[in-house]
Specification:
Blueprint: H1 8-14, E1 18-22, E2 25-27, E3 30-38, E4 44-49, E5 55-56, E6 63-69, E7 74-80, E8 84-85, E9 90-100, E10 106-110, E11 117-125, E12 134-138, E13 144-146, E14 151-159, E15 161-170, E16 178-189, E17 191-192, E18 199-200, E19 208-215, E20 226-232, E21 238-242, E22 248-251, E23 262-270, E24 277-285, E25 292-295, E26 312-314, E27 325-337, E28 340-349, H2 350-353, E29 358-360, E30 379-389, E31 404-416
Length: 418
């Protein structure tokens, strides 16, 4: 289940995402589309070529391959991810991605399964950092833990393999403020960090306060908006620097930065009356560390699809016109039992839509492993999004590349299925 607009930070982590695209292969006989799955192998997959019906697809060595005949550019990929723990339930998610060869032909798709983890051990000493009360320890994908004080040992779980290990000295606030940062590069997990020697913070590791401005907050929306600032290393480690302030953030010291690292700035807000309409932006930059300004998109009003087992969403938002990458998304969710949740999400790129303004949730229940529509009388929760970004992978909601932006507008609600 996607956490929707209730925290763009969480949304980026939990959304099943296509995380890269490439040129793929093409020949006189057509084009080959290759999809690689990580983070868990789907329990079912299907493909659609052009406007033909969906057909079951085999997953071989974690990949699905389909061949488009000469002259055909549209395709769709459908898959069902293994059930995963949700917020007090178990979630089974079905995804349909509709694209064209203009969007790319080689992708890596994640079902967001938990990676293999190992123990990272060591010790840290931040006693020279005034006001420090704890040290957070983070590895790839944000995995990690804390010391529990400003001086002591740690043993935390991180993805196995090579991790950049980021250590942040923080104060004792309920939502701690980052006071200093050290990054120990290319550490092997499981194993001892920094060769078993203590990571000792010095005054040169202190963060510096920089200004952060969020513009274009829609009228009638919550002010100040929610804000999150992350520092990301080139090897996949992410550390939260700030989610307390919409006006400033702590910049990583020069000693901790390295070429290829980047900052991620996020902000989102919802309407004060219902909280059913939201806007947000994620912006990344390798030239961070100074004053930063980001701008929210104009809001979008959508009352929702007509009640149906497989509804049709209508998108009339033009705020992302002219952007390099635009996509529309419709999602439905329902609870078959008190402890389970089912979701179906359809994402269509602007290239696939070719001017169309509607998306209908398809019925793939005739294919083995795909979800059947909910029965009559079921409460259906719906979410509708439009995304606009600067790079095509944004249309598939990947974690942003080192320099770029992704904005979204969203509406949500519910209805009783007829």
């Amino acid at each position: 289940m996607r956490a929707s607009w209730q925290g763009l930070i969480i949304w980026i982590v939990l959304t099943v995402a296509i995380v890269g695209c490439g040129s793929g292969s093409s020949s006189n006989s057509g084009t080959t589309i290759t999809v690689k799955f990580t983070g868990g192998t789907p329990t079912a997959a299907a493909v659609q070529i052009g406007s033909a019906a969906f057909t079951a697809a085999s997953i071989q060595s974690g990949n699905v391959t389909l061949s488009l005949p000469m002259g055909t550019t549209q395709y769709a990929i459908a898959y069902v991810c293994p059930p995963v723990p949700g917020f007090g339930n178990t979630v089974t998610s079905e995804f349909i991605i509709e694209a064209t060869t203009q969007d790319g032909t080689t992708f890596t798709v994640s079902c967001q399964g938990s990676p293999s983890t190992g123990s990272a051990t060591g010790s840290a000493n931040a006693s020279l950092i005034a006001g420090s009360a704890n040290v957070f320890v983070r590895g790839n994908q944000g995995f990690g833990g804390s010391v529990g004080s400003n001086n002591g040992s740690f043993s935390v779980s991180m993805p196995t393999g090579t991790n950049d290990v980021a250590l942040a000295a923080v104060d004792g606030a309920v939502q701690p403020n980052v006071l200093a940062v050290r990054i120990v590069r290319s550490q092997t997990v499981p194993g001892a960090i920094n060769g078993g020697s203590p990571v000792i913070f010095a005054s040169t590791d202190a963060t510096t306060t920089q200004s952060l401005t969020v513009n274009n907050i829609p009228a009638g929306f919550v002010t100040p908006p929610a804000v999150g600032v992350f520092y990301n290393t080139t090897n996949g480690t992410s550390i939260l620097l700030d989610n307390n302030s919409a006006t400033s953030y702590p910049a990583v010291p020069t000693a901790a930065a390295q070429s290829g690292d980047f900052y991620t700035f996020e902000s989102n807000t919802s309407d004060t009356a219902t909280h059913n309409s939201a806007v947000g932006i994620t912006q990344t930059t390798t030239s961070g560390g100074g004053a930063m300004t980001i701008a929210l998109p104009a809001s979008w009003s959508f009352a929702g699809p007509a009640a149906a087992a497989l509804p049709t969403f209508t998108f009339n938002y033009t705020g992302f016109s002219g952007m390099a990458a635009v996509a529309q998304q419709g999602e439905i969710e329902w609870a078959p039992t008190l402890t389970t949740l089912s979701t179906i999400t359809v994402t269509a790129t602007a290239n696939f839509q070719n001017g169309a303004t509607t998306i209908t949730i398809p019925n793939l229940a005739s294919l083995s492993g795909f979800l059947a529509p909910a029965p009559s009388g079921t409460n259906i929760f719906w979410v509708a999004d439009v995304f606009g970004g600067t790079a095509q992978e944004f249309a598939f909601f990947a974690t942003p590349p080192a320099n770029g932006s992704l904005s979204f507008v969203q509406n949500r609600g519910n209805y009783t299925e007829p």
